[in-house]
Specification:
The structure is a single chain. The chain is of the alpha/beta class and 330 residues long. The protein has two domains: 201 residues, 3-Layer(aba) Sandwich (Rossmann fold); 99 residues, no CATH class. 35% of the residues lie in helices and 16% in strands. The chain contains eleven helices and eight strands. An eight-stranded mixed β-sheet has the order 1-2-4-3-5-6-7-8, sandwiched between helices. Strand 7, helix 10 and strand 8 form a beta-alpha-beta unit. Helix 5 runs antiparallel to helix 7 and helix 7 packs across helix 8.
Length: 330
């Protein structure tokens, strides 16, 4: 195997593991996945390393350089890709043939394109949703699951964050989120935003996307507004993010029934798994991760007491680094 001497991750003053050193991709390009979509992908680490794939959040987000740094670059071969309509994938912000199950098939197409037999699947937030869906559909292709900020796209979770729940903790941010929506439509915020985010008027889309993205950015981390992703300030990114995310949520994640993922966890209990969850995660509350851990007792379940939802909070970084290191020999 083509490896060089291991490079340790940075150790913080609190004794926690930090991100690995920055690396550049050794391969990148676009893959035609059909339905008029091309997904952008990149590979980093070492060509002969242990294969892994990173699934970004949202839905509607995109990959970034930090995501590469959760893996020892001397031991892993890590593939990352922008999901349909996201990031550098083409066409941008497209909702056509964009469902959970078309994304699952895209993961398989990418695996085949890269000549990988099996891989470890890493995902946080919506990435954890997609990782579970992929593993349930293709368990024979998964060597391990490293999941963070568990999200199962249930009606209870959606109501909590977009209707009644998180609003009680962030009334100031919630007021900003409600502002573009007339009072008569506020009884179903997802539907109200979906109407505007699919409007043919780009100005209407942009206004709704800015408010939708800010709501998520305001609630994502215990570190406050400074942890808000800077890309949310970019109009094109915000529109793609909000349109695609709202599209998936308006369609209940494209699952056959509410709670489908949890009901099918028995299909993946034999796969080594790691679950990392912030105690004070407002976006995807601990209750969901707790339920997953109960249904999948074989998985290693770690609650980070001083963390919210963001993957870049120190305790979450530490736990994810330890998880990917452990997954090398699972």
């Amino acid at each position: 195997m083509d490896r060089i001497a291991p490079v340790p991750s940075v150790m913080s003053s609190a004794g926690r593991r930090g991100l690995y050193l920055e690396t550049e991709p050794f391969n990148s390009g676009w893959l035609d996945v059909g339905d008029g979509h091309e997904i952008f992908f990149e590979e980093c680490g070492v060509r002969g390393g242990v294969p892994a794939v990173v699934l970004h959040g949202g839905p509607g987000g995109a990959i970034n350089a930090t995501m590469r740094r959760f893996f020892d670059p001397t031991r892993w071969r890590v593939a990352l890709f922008d999901q349909r309509g996201c990031g550098k994938s083409r066409p941008n912000a497209s909702l056509d043939a964009n469902t959970t199950w078309t994304l699952v098939e895209d993961i398989e197409r990418l695996r085949e394109h890269l000549g990988i037999e099996k891989w470890c699947v890493f995902g946080g937030s919506w990435g954890s949703t997609l990782a579970l869906a992929y593993a349930i559909r293709y368990p024979e292709r998964v060597t391990g699951l490293v999941l963070r900020g568990i999200f199962l796209v249930t009606e209870r979770e959606l109501k909590w964050f977009y209707q009644d729940g998180a609003s009680m903790l962030f009334p100031d941010a919630w007021e900003r989120f409600q502002a573009p929506i007339p009072p008569a439509e506020r009884g179903d915020m997802i539907s109200a935003y979906h109407k505007r985010l699919t409007s043919p008027d780009r100005r209407v889309q942009a206004e709704a996307a800015a408010a939708w993205s800010q709501w998520e950015g305001d609630t994502i981390s215990l570190r406050g507004p400074e942890a808000r992703p800077s890309k949310f300030n970019e109009v094109d990114f915000a529109i793609a993010f909000a349109r695609i995310e709202c599209h998936f949520f308006a369609n209940k994640g494209f699952f056959d029934e509410d709670g489908w993922l949890l009901k099918n966890v028995h299909r993946i209990r034999h796969i080594p798994g790691w679950i990392v969850q912030g105690r004070f995660d407002v976006v995807t509350p601990l209750e969901t991760a707790w339920a997953l851990g109960k249904a999948w007792p074989e998985a290693r379940f770690e609650i980070i007491w001083d963390a919210g939802h963001a993957s870049t909070e120190p305790g979450v970084i530490d736990a994810l680094i330890r998880a990917t290191d452990a997954a090398l020999t699972a």
